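The authors assume throughout that readers already know how a fold can be written as discrete tokens. For illustration, here is how one protein appears when written out as sequence plus structure tokens.
>
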Amino acid sequence: MPELLTLTTVQAALAVLVLCVLLASGYYLVSSFRDYAANDHHEVNDVLANLRELHSRGEISDEEFRTIQAKTNPKHIEKSSI
């Protein structure tokens, strides 16, 4: 068996196998991180609720409230992404 590992074709095949395992592991880690990051977003309703709260406390003006509300409107977002 040890003399089998000294053949260059076997060594090359093992190197390719190790490379494939490393690539698959890297792909899995990156995709799981991207899935985690993709789920880290705020829903429009939550944003609007926070916006209303800031406005009611007087931390943002009426003009700021209307501007932000218009930009977070789902219809506005769909039109701007087309």
